Amino acid sequence: MQSLFGTGAREFERTRFEVGALMEAGNQVTAVIQIEATIRSIGKRLRDLQLHLWSFDARGQVAKFRHVVDTHQHWRVSRARCFSAVSAT
Asked: If phi over 0 gives left and psi between -120 and 50 gives alpha, with beta otherwise, what is residue 10?
């Protein structure tokens, strides 16, 4: 997990991280999150509505975590990064 969050911290300059709603059902909690960030390596802005789905075991410990994002938007941003790297060579 540290490497995942470490990469995100280096690459994304977050300007907004706002939890809009929390929903609970059984052993799961879902957080609806609005984010805005700038991708440092290419200077491109990203705005996204994300879902964080947490599942807990019988002891109340986190058993699973899912991070749901707009994959098309993230693909477009990563594609722009690939094209900028190709055009620089």
From this structure: alpha
